């Protein structure tokens, strides 16, 4: 499953992240890869049939997907949405679906205030064990095991 707007990069109520998001959009452009384009990329790799893409605001699409798929478990949950609101929604609705031994990857923990705040708000004083992977061009990626 892949969730994104597959269109415009959303805004956020968190001021610091909004400024950063604006800088990112000014630099890289505001539009994500489209569903059709991504399907073509996946098809070229022969894996389009294995991937479902859900377009729209994650704050709406993820709760709707979770409600419609109550029995689906998740082995790998990779969160790379930067912003507070969708990060919190993903943790609230999809962390409980992680199977025992499943892995949560947070691309922007400690880097974007929103994702970091969402993590601490969701887990409070009882966060899952964390492993920090050092290999992404000096940008640590954080992995949490259930
Ligand atoms: C830094 S990009 C990463 C995209 C992709 N993971 C990659 O590595 O190319 C962050 C993505 O989060 C998406 N995003 C942020 N907030 C979102 C929301 N509320 N709903 C859906 N997508 C969102 C943006 O559209 C953008 O594509």
Please provide a written account of the structure.
- By secondary structure, the chain is α/β, with parallel strands linked by helices.
- The chain has one domain: 3-Layer(aba) Sandwich (Rossmann fold).
- 39% of the residues lie in helices and 24% in strands.
- The strands form 2 sheets. A 4-stranded mixed β-sheet has the order 3-4-6-5, covered by helices on one side.
- Helix 4 packs parallel to helix 5 (113-123).
- The chain is globular, with a radius of gyration of 15 Å.
- The chain starts with a strand and ends with a strand.
- The site of S-adenosylmethionine has 13 residues, from helix 3.
**Percent helix range:** 25-40%
Strand content: 15-25%
Helices and strands, in order, run as EHHEHEHEHEE
Give the class-level CATH name: Alpha Beta
Largest sheet: 4 strands, mixed
User: Any idea what the shape is?
Assistant: globular
| Count of discrete structural domains | 1
Neighbour order of strands in the largest sheet: 3-4-6-5
Overall SS class: alpha/beta
Q: Give the ligands present.
A: S-adenosylmethionine
CATH architecture: 3-Layer(aba) Sandwich
Please give the radius of gyration in angstroms.
Answer: 15 Å
Task: Indicate the mean pLDDT.
Answer: 91
What fold name goes in the CATH topology slot?
Rossmann fold
> Counting H and I runs of at least 4 residues, what is the number of helices?
5
Kindly report the name of the CATH homologous superfamily: Vaccinia Virus protein VP39
Quaternary structure annotation: single chain
Termini separation comes to 20 Å
Low-confidence stretches: none
Total strands: the figure is 6
